[in-house]
Amino acid sequence: MSAEGKDGQVADGDAASDADSLDLVRPPSPVNQPGTGVFSVLWGRPYSNQLWTYRFPVDQDEVTRLDRVHQAIRSAGLTFGPVDVLLDNPQRWPRLLDVGCGSGMWLTEVAVQFPRVDCVGIDFLEQQHVNAPRNVTFMQVNVPRGMGVLAAGSFDVVHIRQMIYAIPDYAGMLAQAYRVLRPGGILLIHEPNLLCYSAWQEYTPEQLGPALVQWSLAFRHGLSQRGVDMNVFNRMEQLAAAAGFTMTHPPHFHYHPLAPGNDNSEAQNETECTRALVAASRITIVEGGEYTHDTFSVLEGEVHAELDGHGAGGARARGLYSPWGFWWVRKE
Ligand SMILES: C[S@@+](CC[C@H](N)C(=O)[O-])C[C@H]1O[C@@H](n2cnc3c(N)ncnc32)[C@H](O)[C@@H]1O
């Protein structure tokens, strides 16, 4: 078991024991049958037995899903705020941290753009691409407690993306981001809220895509059973302020279609993102207790029909959008 010392530093950072002490929230569902090895195969896909909150598969399809999401949302910008000014600093070798870097696509693009920046990606799961540039380092760290191994004040920029549904202690993660940043450093936060909105005022989301709406509510329910608070999205400014950050600029909100109508490659990628997220959410939802594998499969089939334009909401599922927020805040 790790012992926490001064400044939140963890003296003995064993990842597996951190996992034991961190992921305490276990749903009361009768379908919960944790495996005994490092991975269990559930519904044909491998899942880590060491991360309890984040019940997403660890396989090539999941890496592809993460890369697709990256491709879909990068139009909102790779970074936000005056990050370039910090990273272009010729006086020294700036450092950047990506918390929960996933496949490492975001980090790799930043590393290519800023070859003089030391880019560190931390994640509990080993699913990073092997062809990252030389200025990228990947470390296995259990967030937020394991971040104690990173020195205080040692990064110019910290990036957090899509961690809202992975980390129950979001405030603790922001506190660690604050600790590892230098004064003047910037934290970037880029999160989805996983709710469905209607682009057309005369229709409710339920009329446009009933299965997609039902799925998003089931996913949020499954996440809440694991201690995740999706309301973090609406409280981001307060949470950042509580961690010590100053926010001088409003966030940038952008909206992504869940079932885009066009047949171009961008739209196909967005549709594939939705399809893959629904598939990846299976265990979270089934273990949440409201669905069995069979009823989830029915729901998934209905979602596919909506994505193909044949669902109960007809082609109108194309009017469903989901918001993302991009915040940048500073450590004074
Ligand atoms: C939805 S993915 C986001 C990946 C990446 N930030 C992106 O936007 O493409 C969430 C990531 O958090 C990682 N993760 C989940 N729980 C974690 C924990 N306790 N410590 C470290 N990483 C964790 C997962 O392995 C996964 O790579």
Give an overview in words:
The structure is a single chain. The chain is α/β, with parallel strands linked by helices and 332 residues long. It has one domain: Rossmann fold, CATH 3.40.50.150. The chain contains 11 helices and 10 strands. It has helices at residues 15-22, 60-73, 83-87, 105-113, 170-180, 205-208, 210-225, 236-242, 265-280, 282-287, 293-307; strands spanning 39-42, 45-48, 95-99, 118-123, 136-140, 155-161, 181-192, 197-198, 252-257, 320-330. Strands 3, 4, 5, 6, 7, 8, 9 and 10 form an 8-stranded mixed beta sheet that branches. Helix 5 (170-180) links the parallel strand 6 (155-161) and strand 7 (181-192). Helix 2 packs across helix 9 (265-280), helix 7 (210-225) packs across helix 11 and helix 9 (265-280) packs antiparallel against helix 11 (293-307). The protein starts with 14 loop residues before the first helix and ends with a strand. InterPro entries: SAM-dependent_MTases_sf (IPR029063). Residues 1-31 are annotated as: Disordered.
Descriptive tags:
alpha/beta, Rossmann fold, 19% strand, binds S-adenosylmethionine
As a percent range, the share of helical residues equals 25-40%
Low-confidence segments:
1-33
- Gyration radius, in Å: 20 Å
The number of helical runs is 11
Structural class: alpha/beta
Largest sheet: 8 strands, mixed
Q: In the CATH hierarchy, what is the superfamily?
A: Vaccinia Virus protein VP39
Q: Return the string of H and E elements.
A: HEEHHEHEEEHEEHHHEHHHE
